[in-house]
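Worked problem 6 (solution included).
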Amino acid sequence: MASPQESYADSATPTVYSITSSPSPTPDGHPAPITNEKSSESPEGLESGVNVKDAKEQFAELRRELSRQSNLHRIASRQSSDLEKQDDEDEFDLLEYMASPWRLQAAHGASEANQEAGIRHKSAGVIFKDLSVIGNGGMKIHIRTFPDAIKEFILTPLITFGPYFGLFKPEPKTILSRLNGVVKPGEMVLVLGRPNSGCSTFLKAIANLREGYLAVEGDVSYAGIEATEFKKRFAGEVSYNQEDDVHYPTLTVGQTIDFALSTKTPGKRLPQQSPKQFRTVVLDTLLKMLNISHTKGTLVGNEFVRGVSGGERKRVSIAEMFAARSCVASWDNSTRGLDASTALDYAKSLRILTDVFQMTNFVSLYQAGEGIYQQFDKVLVIDEGREIFFGPASEARRYFIDLGFRDLPRQTTADYLTGCTDPNERQFADGRDESSVPSTPEELERAFRSSAHFSKMEAERAAYEKQLAEDKHIQEEFRRAVQEGKGRGVSKKSPYTVSFFAQVMALARRQFQLKLQDKFTVYSSLFSAVTIAIIVGTVFLDLPQSASGAFTRGGVIFITFSELPSQMTGRPILYKQVGFQFYRPAALSVANILADIPLMAIMVMLFSIIIYFMAGLVRDAGAFFTFYILIFMTLLAMTAFFRMIGTVCVSYDVAARLASLIVTAMVLYAGYMVPVFAMKRWLFWIYYLNPLNYGFSALMSNEFKRLNLLCDPIYQVPAGPGYPTTLGPNQVCTLTGARPGELYVSGTDYIRAAFEYDPKHLWRNFGILIVFFVGFQTIQMVLTEVIAHGAHASAVTVFKPEDKDTKVRNQRLQERKQAFRKGEAQQNLEGLVKSRKPFTWSNLSYTVPVSGGQKQLLDNVFGYVKPGTLTALMGASGAGKTTLLDVLADRKTIGVITGEIRIAGRPIGIDFQAGAAYCEQLDVHEWTSTVREALRFSAYLRQPREVSQEEKDDYVEEIIQLLEMEDIADAMIGFPGYGLGVEARKRLTIGVELAAKPQLLLFLDEPTSGLDGQSAYNIVRFLKKLAAAGQAILCTIHQPNALLFEQFDRLLLLEKGGKTVYFGDVGKDSHVLVNYLAKHGAHCPPDANPAEYMLDAIGAGSKKRVGPKPWSQIYLESEEFAKNKRVIEEFNAQALKDFPELKRATSIYNTPFLYQLRIVGKRTFLSFWRMPDYGFTRLFSHMIISLLTSLTFLMLGNSVADLQYRVFVIFITAVLPALILAQVEPTYIMGRNCFIREDSSRMYSPFVFSLAQLVSEMPNSLLCATAFFLLLTYPAGFNTASDRAGYQFFMILVTEVFSVTLGQLVAALSPSIPVAAIFNPFILVFFALFCGVTTPKPNLPTFWRVWMYQLDPFTRLIGGMVTTELHGLEVRCKPAEFSIFQPPSGMTCGEWAQPYVEVAGGYLRDLNATQDCGFCKYSMGDQFYMPLDMDFDNRWRELMLTARLTSHRGS
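Solution. The predicted structure is:
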């Protein structure tokens, strides 16, 4: 029999066969070519799954059509050109495209045979010899707390560079040990093993992903090419597809796949066919092959964005792998969360991928059914990193049976093989035990290495190596195929298919699509820019071209820099697609800025038009467009800068710390708050490295070089009664840069004197901005190439250090664990359920509002759950399984529910949710808690208040024992990659509900999703024990094998539309269900899994339903339906007799308010303590901002400038809310997500949650306020008197708490973190604009002055702190600060100007001088703030008003 590769090479079209769910394998391990007629489908094909035969036929049809087009073009060309020349053209072949690049046939002198074949296959077999992987291990990591973050920061240099000098070297741990095998092109390998056995590590090692491990030993080769060379030159020919489907949710399916194709389109195509035309053709083919054509225009979606279904999203990942055209692919647990039918479709899709493209596929799957298993050629079984079998899939089961393990016929082969590695679950054949059967991983490995299968594998590997060594043509074909598949401009050594420019263009198009399709962000950004511009414009409306508008005019220009971008999202997708070699990371950096430019240009233009003309800046076209281009260029430079920061930083917390330092430095050293000549010499260098400086300087030059500022009367000295009404020779304008006796001040003179800006440097500064932009962009491009934060991080579990109590309890758990294993003890569930009440529902319907009307999700469903029974709820995707659970559990808050739901014959009451438990599909927990703490929290708040805490603690230990979580009792829950694994999180979800001792009902939504077959069986077996103890259980389940399915007592089967198909017993070997189906024409084959077959029979899978009539109608007309209705009535009637006086609860909670507050508050305090990065980032931001500010204004004196600087220092306090809101809001919203789940179980009230969140923030707030106060006020030389310094501290503390409450208020009103972030700019701009600093109260427009100024909390903050600091402060001008004028001839300075001084304030330098009179406009600090309507006597009022605002928001 010819190999698949030979068959493809010798035939015009690929071999076509279809695979049923249970084919018999051929001796070589391949599925037998069983014919299977195409099932009838709906017109749109929406109900169908993947059909291998149909997919291959579509592929062949497209291939023939494209080849026909190529031939027609060739004929037409030959009629008009030289025939000999045409012989060098390609004959296009689609198989050649997908299995290898387009390639030119050998020119002039190529063999005739090669020309006839026209194909050079790009395929690579994999050989691995003694493959071992060494990782980090041997160290128990403890939970990080707040002090750890401080220690880590201090020791950062040592931690960063220590490993290079042998410090902090991790202890090695062998993850994989001496694995051997050979996989040829066109073969699929199933990788099996229990969780943590090393399956994922093996898949990554085969995919040449060696980062993140200490060492990878042994030899791995691809088509005879060593792994090192393959990684360097052919990295795109091997790929790893992770367990999760990571895509951009706001892209459509078509856009996602089209992007992948655009980065993998070779240069040779059909003659006169553009890349876009070709991508369109291939895209349509891929969608047809995978049966997702109807999703082409649908968003991919994710958990938060509505899009395609999970199964369809999985096929999008497969299509992306198609487009990658890799020869070798690793797929990691890719059927998680899919139902049995969709999982089989997935396996069939992989079979297509392998057969059509001659790929080499390695796949790990959990809960693989027999139909899925039989799609594979070979199987690799791993036990604790050791290879215990590798060989034909058809021979694996027999191998383990021959070793001495008992055959379990009803268990799927995949589960059986995995079960043989589980000491708790495996069974030995009669007369055999551990002493006579290899049982440990080491013994199983030795048994395999001495077996005939290992020898056969070695012989096969040696033969393949010999073939590769002797037939150099294979490797040469591979190398040539890869090389000729590259586009124009791609280096021979590059692993990429298209040029860097083509990558950038494809990425820019995708990024622009992302922006346009994220309408919420686009519209909110435009709205934010326009609204803020309008508000700022109204505050600075029509600024006068006079001295009174000079400083304010600079202020409005400075405010234009208020919108600064940040970038830290999309890393997982970047790492995945870079792994596919779609593009260089640097290409994404360039594409991001290209995609930003159009929308950024529009927003800047709108912002500029509004603020420029409302504020009355120079009405000149040249000035406006210069203004626009300067803002735009500054924004581009800052965008590149912050993206660079996001690239460098490993996490948001690190970025926030760095940003707090850099942004503060940029604002302080932009040249506006502190002119360059006044800057401290040890920090003024920041000014020259600051892009904002050059942007602000250029904008100021652009504006003021065109102005001559009129000196207003209030700026004339001396002025008033008895003095000339117009500026005379004995008067001076006090505006900086004014010349004595001149009424107008040149704008150029003003900015030169006040800021040392020179208009001649305008375009120089613009050029410097361009240099900054290019520099930041270049650095970012380099960094993205060399830095990959978290891309290859290994999952870790962290533990709470043992205390005296937990040490004793853990020891007891381990002792009991050993007793259970030896059979010396049994789990005791007696007394778990004290009151057994039946639960029934009748005529249950549920409709929800949709655009255009109502949609019915449940349609007259009847059913019941009897105490002591385990009921399964099943159906196809979209059948309403989870909806029914939500309705029955009283969790729905929208829509209309009709029908009856009864417990013990009575309608459910307000205590139903507290008495029932609901294990949701998503494992949502407080991530900082440990397993034991989470279980105790549930027990404390949900068990009756009369149960003592000691009893609750003891019961939690029983739950830990029941769920076999003894080894992770003190492990922190964490999040994926840093905490519990999928299985442990699922067990914890069940445990949290069991800890409540639910007396009414236990609902579970897909409790086995994401678990391996053995773990799934353990979960269901445990549920069976609970049912036997009297618990009533209703459970949805996916992918159950026959053995697992028959553990259920009853089944409720739904079809789409929420209609009942069957409700009744399952029976031994599912005979009751099978008989029901057979009675109505659906005969289940003896070797089929009833759980899979019933879905196919009712049309829920990839086949048409059996029979002409809908199964829901058959059920309504059946005897079973009538019987069920009678049973429901009997249950309700009997329950009314058995429970005549059912006690109703008066509260929806089981515990009182103060008890709730104590338990919830304790957990929240502990949570904040275990979020060290959150607390330290906030503290660091406070410290660095205050320290940088105080160093900038170090030891202020009593000059006029120092007076202004003291106000600036105080105004920095107004920055605190911006910092705090950005941190408090995400923390509150993430905590609320957990609260929503707990609130549905009526654990504690919303008020308790909010109060606990607020109170838990107080220690950190006190610490931050204290650090900020000490580092700000004392180094800056503020008044240290106790009454002054004490007031300043209390005002800072109140502002800190106010900011926390404000952040929590905004978060409570926002549905998500992005929405909360949108509110922040409006709030902060309002607060900063109307507090009287950027624009003094007298200058505010009347509309804002009469209400917003009074309501602004910053008005109280600034007013109280400014008056406290400046009251009684004696002011002494520096020589340069005196306004110099000449007195009239014969008069002294005092005689001429003293009358003015007595009215206006200030003082004269020398009353008796007869020339060069020096006037200082302030003599006391009070004179500075009195015109601003501030009063020292009101400072305590201001503090009380701020505190009152805080208390209102807190409540």
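Discussion: Confidence is low (pLDDT under 50) at residues 1-48, 73-119, 562-569.
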